[in-house]
Amino acid sequence: MTKLRGKAIVAQSGGPTAVINSSACGVIQTALGNPDVFTGVYGALNGILGVLDEDLMDLAKEDPGEIDRLRRSPSAALGSCRHKLKDLQKDRTDYERILGVFRAHDIRYFFYIGGNDSMDTAAKLGQLAREIDYEMIAVGVPKTIDNDLAFTDHCPGYGSVAKFTAASVMEAGRDTESLYTHDTCTVQEIMGRNAGWIAAAAGLARRSEEDAPHIILLPEVPFVIEKFIAQVQHSLKKYKRCFIACGEGVKTPDGRYLGEAGGSFATDAFGHAQLGGASDAVRAIIETKVGVKCRTNRAGTAQRNAMHFASATDVAEAYLVGAAAVEAALEGVNGKMITLVREGNGSDYRCTTGLAELEDVANGEKMLPAEFIGSDGISVTDAFRDYARPLLAGQAEVEIADDGLPVYARLAKHMVAKRTESR
Amino acid sequence: MTKLRGKAIVAQSGGPTAVINSSACGVIQTALGNPDVFTGVYGALNGILGVLDEDLMDLAKEDPGEIDRLRRSPSAALGSCRHKLKDLQKDRTDYERILGVFRAHDIRYFFYIGGNDSMDTAAKLGQLAREIDYEMIAVGVPKTIDNDLAFTDHCPGYGSVAKFTAASVMEAGRDTESLYTHDTCTVQEIMGRNAGWIAAAAGLARRSEEDAPHIILLPEVPFVIEKFIAQVQHSLKKYKRCFIACGEGVKTPDGRYLGEAGGSFATDAFGHAQLGGASDAVRAIIETKVGVKCRTNRAGTAQRNAMHFASATDVAEAYLVGAAAVEAALEGVNGKMITLVREGNGSDYRCTTGLAELEDVANGEKMLPAEFIGSDGISVTDAFRDYARPLLAGQAEVEIADDGLPVYARLAKHMVAKRTESR
Q1: Is residue A377, in this structure, part of any structural domain at all?
Q2: Taking a C-beta distance cutoff of 8 angstroms, is the pair B13, B47 a contact?
Q3: What pLDDT, on a 0 to 100 scale, did the predictor assign at position B347?
Q4: How many C-beta atoms surround the C-beta of residue B181 within 10 A?
Q5: Structural domain tally of chain A?
Q6: What is the mean pLDDT of each run of 10 residues along chain B (423 residues)?
Q7: On chain B, which terminus has fewer CB atoms closer than 10 Å, C or N?
Q8: Does B245 reach chain A within 8 Å, measured CB to CB?
Q9: What residues does B215 pair with on adjacent strands?
Q10: How far does the CA of residue A60 sit from the closest CA of chain B (Å)?
């Protein structure tokens, strides 16, 4: 079989992570190392939007040192997006436009770093390409802090957000511990809209019983207000304080997000509808129904980009899946996503890569399984700890300048001359 | 002069910091090293509350390894409090109770680690002790993330919160940079109720013009809504995004906190009174008056305890002031607070200790000076950068376990038998 020659393009999609650039670095460096196959290595500005708008950059023109620095730089250096393509069955315009841009630049390899939606996009592009006989290879690279992609043991990005979150809960937990006579409760809101993987990781901060978090609120466990109040009171009685790790996606038994459901809790509490997130609702409940002061912490986007305390394991694996995507493509693999395959656990933990169908990944979602959730519904099990611990291991190297702050990459973004009419 | 012999007591007060335990470690280790003078080394549980309640712990009984680990453990391991003593002129009860407890245990040395209020307490205790002829020595150890104590170049705790804040703004700034087509603005709320020192430190994240933060809102600069809207629009035009570092203590021209003033902004915006802090008010303004999506980040108590990315300079200086307090007391110094004295700047930065009157510190407050604030009111000057940079330098060592998470000290707290009736 003669290898398909042509340009490669890499794009990043969805919410940034600490290590999505490490994956991009793996793709770019491996592709640049195979000039016999890849006649160019392009990046799409802001994910699939950049392809639609033909905003392409020539990554071969970047300073190789800056490309290498991507390995230890957070967020999406190529730019990301949250653009959802139309349904291929109903409207092929976007997909045809993308393939039109690919054809105009002889782009034959598409490496898409993202979550479910991105895998769906890549799968459908491949499908249309086959239909119209445009020879191309699409390989997906998994990325999501949410850790909810199916067919992969875990997702690059998760280990680092888990590590930062657990350390942060550990540290803020010590704050509540020292000031319980004044600030008795603290709620820390943790990302994860549908799955509780990151909130669960906060549980790793709890090495001894009195450590924070005393209560973990997971999206997988319906929030029952009376039960919660009793749990807080129990913690106050036992530890004189209560630290709550609160998943942003926590829902009431009727399936509403706690933040939105605020209407019922907070109208009650303050006489007006509640804005804000789950942590604000939880605080309102504690202050009005339990009657103690409650603080809220919500690191927001800072948590998913915390490269300054990222997991070395995560950074290495993120690079690995990027490099593996290119290597798989070189072997003719098409329409697949690279997966992480765990071999051994604890100090025996090792990780290799595997493959899954893009379509399968697109349609799957991996919630926190029941055996990882404590029987009280507000803690994690040893099985979860065993699963999660190796993913946080090791301190990722970060370049620190004389001013004590990190040095992160920024690409020069050498834009490629357009060859098509604007859409 | 014969040296005063007796027990030493150390207490921690106010909001925890990443390094208040480093100072405690400096006090404890230096005091334990001088058993000829200090017949015992006690700690007060939860600051001055522990003295009032005679909740004292014998620190000599702690594992020396755990005492040493305090040097790199955040928050207040002895426990802290926000208890304000009554005015000595009006009600001497509390002060007499404290001296009664000191006398019962032959406590002759009082080392109080805290801010203005703590220095006030220590000063007044000393004053009353002289009046009633109870021989004792009180020395203050500066601590506050707010960096607003007078007579000291800077305060232990500031360098670390500044370092974490700047890194976090740098990282979240990259998030906004990559996702500007969706999440166009981000407001990160930063601690500092009265002074803008920490918010200013976010400015260190901005190495090039397009870096975050594009706007710094300082408590020292009145917030004028029309001006702010124009500044956001300018940033959107220039960078397609806007990242705002927002001091929690930002005030309107009539002196109300922005969070409280929400009434006017947010009733306007959402038809109901605004809860929450300054960042919620700023988000409401951006979403309704500028018309773009705005995220809010608020690390809360996690920011002031972020030992996982603390400044090595800060940790060393925090230990230094603790040790210096004991050494000063050994030389008969009384009624003073240890200060940090800067000698040289930039790569020549060195720091020694000095002394200030407790009373002077108690009555002073150091706002961000005008020469540190840019002429636009939303940036910091090179003079500030020169001042702040050395304080963030170096990575503090933290013990990391196999699970990738820090190991922080927790004292066993061997409580001392009570010798007085409860108050």
Answers
A1: no
A2: yes
A3: 80
A4: 18
A5: 2
A6: 90 97 98 98 98 98 98 98 89 96 98 96 96 97 97 98 98 97 96 94 97 97 97 98 97 89 44 64 94 96 98 98 98 97 89 97 94 98 97 97 97 98 89
A7: N
A8: no
A9: B244
A10: 21
pLDDT at B266: 42
CA angle A128, B181, A108 (to 5 degrees): 30
Closest C-alpha to B258, from B298, B203, B217, B216: B217
**Residue A268: pLDDT over 80:** no
Per CB-CB distance under 8 Å, the chain A contacts of B274 are: 275
Q: How crowded is the C-beta side of A90, counted as CA atoms within 13 Å? A: 3
On whether both B330 and B347 belong to a single domain, the answer is yes
- In this predicted structure, what is the pLDDT of residue A1? 58
Regarding whether B357 and B228 lie in a shared domain, the answer is no
CA distances from B112 to A149, B120, B139 (A): 52, 10, 7
**Rounded to 5 degrees, what angle do the CA atoms B194, B143, B73 make?**
120
Q: Where are the beta strands (DSSP E) in A115-271?
A: 137-142, 185-190, 215-217, 242-247
The candidate with the shortest Cα–Cα distance to A199, out of A285, A252, A105, A278, is: A278
- Per DSSP, the three-state class of A247 is strand
- The total number of residues written for chain B in this structure: 423
CB proximity B279 to A under 8 Å: no
Note whether A253 and B248 are within 8 A (CB): no
Q: What is the pTM of this model?
A: 0.96
- Look up residue B367 and give its two tokens: 């706002």
Domain housing B19 = 6-157+307-364
Same-domain status, B63 and B12: yes
CB A202 within 8 Å of CB A165? yes
Q: Are A160 and A18 in contact (CB under 8 A)?
A: yes
Of residues A273 and B250, more confidence is placed in B250
The more confidently predicted of residues B258 and A409 is A409
Q: What is the pLDDT of residue B346?
A: 76
Asked if residues A121 and A112 have their Cβ atoms less than 8 Å apart, the reply is yes
Q: Which H or E run includes B119?
A: helix B116-131
- Judge if A38 and A72 occupy the same domain: yes
pLDDT of residue A301: 97
Q: In this structure, are B312 and B284 located in the same domain?
A: no
Which region among A87-91, A246-250, B169-173 has the lowest average model confidence (pLDDT)?
Answer: A87-91
Residue type, A347: S
Measured between beta carbons, the chain B residues lying within 8 angstroms of A176 are 301
Q: Please write the tens of the pLDDT for every residue from A40-71.
A: 999 999 999 999 999 999 999 999 999 999 99
Give yes or no: residues B213 and B146 share one domain: no
Contact B38, B29 (CB under 8 A): no
pLDDT of residue A269: 41
> What's the one-letter identity of residue B419?
R
How sure is the predictor about A346, in pLDDT bands with cuts at 50, 70 and 90? Answer: confident
Nearest to A302 among B168, B178, B393 (CB): B168
Report the pLDDT value the prediction gives residue B276, as an integer from 0 to 100: 62
A132 and A181 fall within a common domain: no
Give A74's contacts in chain B (Cβ within 8 Å).
Answer: 171, 174-175
Question: Are residues B204 and B70 part of one domain?
Answer: no
Residue B375 domain flag:
no
Q: Can the peptide bond before residue A213 be classed as cis, meaning omega within 30 degrees of 0?
A: yes
Does residue A298 form part of some domain?
Answer: yes
B354 phi-psi bin (left φ>0, alpha ψ -120 to 50, beta other):
beta
pLDDT digits (tens, 9 = 90+) for A299-325: 999 999 999 999 999 999 999 999 999
Residue scoring higher pLDDT (B113 or A1): B113
Query: Do the domain assignments include residue A394?
Result: no
Report the CATH number that the domain containing residue A212 is assigned in CATH. Answer: 3.40.50.460
Strand-pair category, B185-190 with A336-343? unpaired
> What's the mean per-residue pLDDT of chain A?
94
> Which among B120, B146, B148, B153 is annotated as catalytic?
B146
Is residue B146 annotated as part of the catalytic site, yes or no?
yes
